[in-house]
Design goal:
The chain is α+β, with helices and mostly antiparallel strands. 30% of the residues lie in helices and 34% in strands. Strands 2-3-1-4 form a four-stranded antiparallel β-sheet, with helices on one face. Strand 2 and strand 3 form a beta hairpin. It starts with a strand and ends in a 10-residue tail after the last strand.
């Protein structure tokens, strides 16, 4: 699993978070996305590394400013009942 963290300027409220989350969901095959306007970040969990140029384009279309992109590999969480 890959965690991609976006530093985004311009999100001011929960609706801004939803706008960014919807843009990510509609343009990428992801497992989870979560944004925080107070921290100015969006975290994305996906199976594959996301194309950074596509991320820049999608965030640019939302009207917010993408400051940085960082990625890290994370362990896939095991469910308590799985072996």
């Amino acid at each position: 699993m890959i965690k991609t963290t976006l530093q985004i300027d311009g999100m001011m409220c929960g609706m801004c978070e939803n706008h960014v989350n919807d843009a990510i969901r509609n343009n990428f095959n992801i497992s989870k996305v979560s944004s925080s306007h107070s921290k100015g970040i969006t975290e994305i969990i996906s199976e594959e590394t996301l194309n950074e140029e596509n991320i820049k384009s999608v965030i640019g279309e939302t009207g917010y400013e993408l400051r940085s992109i960082s990625t890290e590999e994370i362990a896939k969480k095991k469910l308590p009942w799985s072996k």
